[in-house]
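pls design
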């Protein structure tokens, strides 16, 4: 859906369109997220704090052998292709 007067974000109008798209293409029940007026109801949604979504923390640090940048990833992939 093209909305030329809106920002490039994931605001309500884009999320509403995404709900309809995913329901149609993934066979989901759109009615499960609609209110009595037929509008998407996100009031039951919990928005997690960014820290809660971090994969690596002080308790679970990045593995010491992890690849950290594009150059090291490219080098590892090229080595696998040999």
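designed seq:
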């Amino acid at each position: 859906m093209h909305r030329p007067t809106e920002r490039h974000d994931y605001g309500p109008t884009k999320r509403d369109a995404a709900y309809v798209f995913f329901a149609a293409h993934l066979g989901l029940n759109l009615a499960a997220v609609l209110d009595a007026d037929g509008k998407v109801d996100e009031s039951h949604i919990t928005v997690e704090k960014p820290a809660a979504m971090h994969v690596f923390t002080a308790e679970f640090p990045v593995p010491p052998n992890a690849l950290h940048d594009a150059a090291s990833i490219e080098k590892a992939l090229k080595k696998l292709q040999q």
